[in-house]
Amino acid sequence: MAGKAAMAGLHAGRKLVENLLPSRRARMVGWYDPKVLTQSAWLMTLANIFGRHSDSRLIEALASQPQHEFEFAADPQTGEFWFDYVCDVADGWNPTFAVASAVAESRLELATPGGESVTTHGGQLLVFGGDEVYPYPSREAYAMRTEAPYRAAFEGAGRWPQVFAVPGNHDWYDSLVAFSRTFCRPERGFAGCATQQTRSYFGLKLPQNWWLLAIDLQLGADLDEPQVRYFRDVVSRMPDDARVILCVPDPQWAYEVEYPDHASYSDHALRFFERRILRRKVAVFLTGDLHFYKRHERADGVQKIISGGGGAFLHPTHAPPTAQLRGGFVERACYPSVQTSRRLTWWNLAFPFLNPKALVIPAVLYMLSAWFASATLSAGDIGSLRDAFHAALAGAIRDPINGLWLMLFVSAVVFFTDTHVRWYRVLGGIAHAVAHLGAAFAVGWLALIVTTRWFGLPFGDIAQMLVSAVITFVGGGIAGSLVLGLYLFVSLRIFGRHSNEAFSSLKIQDFKQWLRLRIDAAGDLTIFSIGIDRVPRYWSEPPRDEHGRGRIQADDRTATLPRLIEMLTLRWRGEGRYAVDGIDECGRRYAREPQAPSDA
For the chain, which residues make up each domain, given as ranges? Predict the structure, then answer.
């Protein structure tokens, strides 16, 4: 335990230095920074309450744009077709550019867990699977956080694939205004690459009877009527034995495990699309939204893959456990490992160092709490901690303003608690609130003791109150952040809750991952899951050429090269069944013939 805490402290020290040093490139988003919290809460409120923040004029304009499926051909010499799938990008420059520069390479040699080497080729197609910018969309955010690293990567490699994108929840926070400008204007392009889509969803006809369909679920909503009509038209031109890759904005099959009673996380929209519109089995489901890699497989070879490691902070892989999914899907691969995910949870104990700007929030709340409590105290009430506590409690009951503040404080903390599990929201929220109130009382009482006994200032004097407020502000910021970090650690480590809140505070740049896919001349689909265990922190820029281009190189000995996490090949066996073979996470080769799927 001491070793894990020491590692957490080391990481915290490094992160504190990174937060303080100046940088001209985008850092990882500080999700607990007051400005980010305020703006995110405002946009989420608008998006989820006021008609999901949808400007019907823009949505109708997008839906009215002429668009059919887009056709791609295999390489005439090899008969192969390669493309890349990247999700959840543009949280910070380091992880985003690390993935982008690897994607841009025309040839990428990958070491396997077993010590072999696998060669992959850069595709003529790049598909972004959702959440193309963080923390919220704007023209400037897309330009700086998304386009800038990809433009630099493509220019350095001298390769420009065609780009398609499906929006995620963060792209929807401005009703797709910035997303449509970035990806749905073919005359503009993206980062020097050609774009063709004019809507937020699309269909791609790939070689060897493979089709890639990407749907837009608009913050968990059902499919809209223009989108239904579009895909019914596309499906009408698909042969009966078409093999389908379906890209969706979020992994509803995983969320329904964590929140089984919450309707927003049911996969009814996917079932409707597969059974009523597609009218055939999907071979591979692709999604992101959760920032890690997990693959689930059914007995008939159908795959459900979460690949959200394109550049955002890491999510934990150990919570919630997803060894089995509804429909007979079994977990086959996970990156990073559950053991690594559990170890990273310890970093929450260093919350104040990882999120220094967040100290302002508990500092203000603790200072206000101490202010309301001290207003009901007299000089005789602070003789001992016990006397002060009883006096403060009586004051909270007697003074309506003080009592109202306490109720608002507890309600705010309960609201913050894991929102879709009622029992944990109530019990965990109250326990969390009581811990904060206890810490606030202790800090406030200590401030009174310091100012009256150590400094000799008269109780209630202006100087005493001002100095006490400063002490409470500083001490409250530190104590409140420590309490929050401890709460997130206990919630995730023991109860498996607050996975997003706990790991967003860590701002982990490493363990990035994306997919490279190949359709060969025989029609077999091979999926390469590629990971970067540690992304570079430092980059060197050589002199620019006459066109202003230069190739940015990693200048960090601690960084690791892209490697193969796993590889699998799907071979068509008819009737929506696929044989699966490949190399697993341990470097072992395997082969499985399709069986009848379970009805579980």
Answer: 46-345+512-592, 356-504
